[in-house]
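My main concern about presentation is that the manuscript never shows what a single data entry looks like. An entry of this sort, consisting of the sequence and the corresponding backbone structure tokens, reads as follows:
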Amino acid sequence: MFRGTGTAVITPFKDGAVDFDAFRRFLRFQLENGIEALIILGTTGESPTINESERTKLIRIAVDEAGGKVPVIVGTGTNSTEKTIKSSLKAFDEGADGVLVVVPYYNKPTQEGLYRHFGEIATRAQGPVIIYNVPGRTGANILPDTVIRCLEFNNIVGVKEASGDQYQVDYLISALRSKESDFKVWSGNDDQAFHLCCSGGDGVISVISNVAPMKTSTMIHSILKGDLHIARGLHLELLPLMKALFVESNPIPVKYALSLMNYCQNELRLPLYELSEGNRNVVRKALQESGVL
């Protein structure tokens, strides 16, 4: 798996359908601007609203555009272990390099249930699995000690950490490093990526890199190389944009931002709806102040 910046890629729509041409063009923009991984069909990609035939074509396009130069990681997690396994197997069949599996939402499993869920997926999917911890969306938080238990499954290779709890993140990184583990920890929150990487993390799975891939990638690489002065400057420069892109539920603001950049239509699928008029000014101003627009 990668160290650096992976983009949680949007799914463009046009007149209700997936805009596959815009998707391909957008992936090329990402790859030309230093992104180390393409993460498709996650939260930012509006995965709950994508049907199976659309999923298959999106995966094939991403694998084709990546051309083996960067990993393609596919969001396959649901709140059903069996459905997640089937989706993961299909993603690997289509050429995915890894799968991103969110902590099951709504049914609120215990830590033992989470351990067994990810263990079953790892055992049967037989490809690299990344845990995605985002309790603000799922209602359940996988704790560091449970993540450590998952190390016994060799193909659980990392965690996207979006708990928002810096102590939890630091505790996990410290425990992993004491074991000299190659298990990766990526930030799932753009505004905490600088801090996570300074604590010894491996990068970010990012929303802001949809609109600012080169700046995001440069910031993360600067930390990993020890150039904190450069990284700090980019973090502070991008901070207003990081906030603006979450002024409403992701990916509503980033879809609007990318429509201003002519990479997609400002179109989402219900139950998500386009950015409110007042917040459009917030996003446009942040894009301009960050030098993106």
